[in-house]
Amino acid sequence: MSSKSELTAIRDEPDPILRARQASALINEYQQQSLELARLRREAIEEAATTRGLTFTQVAKELGLSKGRITQIRQSAPPVERALFGMGPVTVAVPIRPVPDRDLGMIAAEDTRSAEAITEALRKLSLDVEHYEIPASGELDFDGDAVIICGPKSSAEAAELIAADPHFTFAPDRDGRWSIRETPTERTYESPLDNDPETHRDVAYLSVRTTDDSRRLLVAGVHAIGSLGAITYVINHLSELYQRSKMDANLSTVIETAFDGLTIREAERISGIRVWP
To answer: What is the superkingdom listed in this entry's lineage (predicted)?
Structure first.
């Protein structure tokens, strides 16, 4: 539907409450598009300076703007790595985990902390955030851009996303212990926590997927604390991850985390970043 058609449809809506809701939704959509256009302009200006060897004064002249206006654009527009998460709004999804002898499940403290951390980072990037609790049945019942903090054990749909990765698998062995395996090399990444709980280390799968209309970042720890470590890695390496997925590529990697309770002491990549179309 064109912008004019959307406006006409809202204007013709007889119910004033519904009309107000529709107008608010469209305003939010336009605001997100405006922010993305500002980001694209900033990125293009910086790319012109870098790839063409131009000064910002020369770029300003090419665009018919003053150097001061170029400086203002570069300082006020959202960071270019904002696009790692799409245009927004971004749904942050965490699983409800079953609890023995209880009708209602619960969200793990590690997942709550992960959601809080990535929500804060997204808002700093001027992205609107929505929250979704993945039911025990595992459905990812939402559209658009998302950060999914969930492993294959908690969601069959998350498992399908991981299964589509040509570089990594994430599955249990005969004894039911989960591990991540790199397909080409057959290297296996096991959680040190499973071998010795006193090590306070875990591993997690991290991927970014691009479709025609959305970007979905998924983190899945062998244990929930591994997901928190992967989220920490994402927040600390936004620029690197964006540059590797800049041309709408999919990517995946493995993160190892050292922790103390819910405090992440270290989160580092222990495999290469694998990219595919």
So the answer is: Bacteria
- Cβ-in-10-Å burial (0-12, 13-18, 19+) of 104 comes to exposed
Range of the domain at 135: 84-276
| Distance in angstroms (rounded) separating the CA atoms of residues 71 and 67 | 6
Find the mean pLDDT for residues 184-199: 92
Is residue 26 within 8 Å of residue 10, measured between CB atoms?
Answer: yes
- For the chain, what is the radius of gyration of the CA atoms? 21
- Contact between 139 and 157 (Cβ < 8 Å): yes
Tokens of 237: 């390496």
Residues 93 and 156 in one domain: yes
Question: Could you give the residue ranges of the DSSP H alpha helices within the chain?
Answer: 3-11, 16-51, 56-63, 67-76, 109-124, 156-163, 192-195, 224-236, 238-244
Per-residue DSSP letter, 186: -
Residues 70 and 90 occupy one common structural domain:
no
Residue 154 shares a structural domain with residue 37: no
Boundary of a domain, candidates 40, 61, 78 = 78
**Tens digit of each residue's pLDDT (9 = 90 or more) over 82-117:** 999 999 899 999 999 988 877 788 999 999 999 999
Query: Do residue 130 and residue 165 come from a single domain?
Result: yes
pTM of the model: 0.86
The number of helix segments (H) and strand segments (E) in the chain equals: 9, 11
